[in-house]
Specification:
The chain is of the alpha/beta class. About 40% of the residues lie in helices and about 25% in strands. It folds into two domains: about 5-90, ATPase, nucleotide binding domain (Nucleotidyltransferase, domain 5, 2-Layer Sandwich), CATH 3.30.420; about 105-250, Nucleotidyltransferase, domain 5, CATH 3.30.420. It has a five-stranded mixed beta sheet, sandwiched between helices. Strands 8-7-6-9 form a four-stranded mixed beta sheet, sandwiched between helices. The longest helix is centred in the C-terminal third of the chain and has 32 residues, at about 185-220.
């Protein structure tokens, strides 16, 4: 068996991990992010997840991590060193991605956005737009030359719903599910309609504007799009600009970045 790679993306709300055997993604998991987790707790978590699929920590020989929670980076580094016997690759300054970042301050771009862009560029070519439905709804613009140009950040679907129901005394939290119609007949149905169709409209508006800017700069068309993130499959069917959803896009990007740094 080839050396197994554990790829981990740490988000503000959820973290996604994937176990690669060569080019094959053998297993993947989605767990709640605990920003206070220690290296020992991470060892317990991943030992349990791996055991459920018939693997052990000693089977993992390589690790790559992207994180938007700075406090957890050192804990994952310690976990990789003490429990896996390897040095974790951390997506950030100094790591080779193959993606020029042309923002005013490249260091402030989230690691998850970088690896998403790497995967999207590999899959679709440039220019393209990546939309990630996470704690925030992020939009990333990649040029025809394969450069990360920047993007937009909007509130996330769940964050917006939580803020609304917290501030409005007569609105109770509802489970996010497919709305039956735009015109809701109950308060719960109206909330689902407003959130799902509202975000679909928000996404279309921003994506269309990004596409126009990319087309104007690159003189090429069309501008491809792809979506990822926990709520993508709920919102995307109601959009006009998004057709492709890949829930594993971030893991694929991590695998690509790892390959580009493996020799080093």
């Amino acid at each position: 068996m080839t050396t197994l790679l554990l790829a981990i993306d740490i988000g503000n709300t959820h973290s996604v991990a994937g176990l690669y055997d060569g080019d094959e993604l053998r297993e993947h998991w989605r767990v709640a992010t605990d920003s206070q987790a220690t290296a020992d707790q991470l060892a317990t978590l991943f030992s349990s997840l791996l055991a459920l699929k018939g693997y052990k920590l000693v089977d993992v020989g390589q690790t790559i991590v992207s994180s938007v929670v700075p406090a957890l980076i050192s804990q994952y580094e310690q976990f990789a060193e003490t429990c896996l016997g390897t040095k974790a690759l951390i997506v950030g300054p100094g790591l080779k991605t193959g993606l020029p970042v042309l923002t005013n301050n490249p260091h402030e771009v989230g690691a998850d956005r970088i690896v998403n862009a790497v995967a999207a560029l590999e899959m679709l070519g440039g220019p393209c737009v990546v939309v990630d439905f996470g704690t925030a709804t992020t939009f990333c613009a990649i040029s025809a030359a394969g450069e990360y140009l920047g993007g937009a950040i909007a509130p996330g679907v769940e964050v917006s719903l939580e803020a609304l129901t917290t501030r409005a005394a007569r609105l109770s939290r509802v489970d996010l599910s497919e709305p039956e119609a735009v015109i809701g007949k109950t308060t719960a149905a109206s909330l689902r309609s407003g959130v799902i169709f509202g975000f679909a409209g928000l996404v279309d508006g921003i994506v269309e504007r990004i596409q126009k800017e990319l087309s104007g700069a690159a003189k090429t068309a069309p501008v491809a799009t792809i979506a990822t993130g926990g709520l993508a499959e709920l919102v995307v069917p109601h959009t006009e600009t998004l057709r492709r959803v890949d829930p594993l896009l971030t893991l694929k990007g991590l695998k690509l970045v790892h390959e580009r740094n493996e020799k080093n």
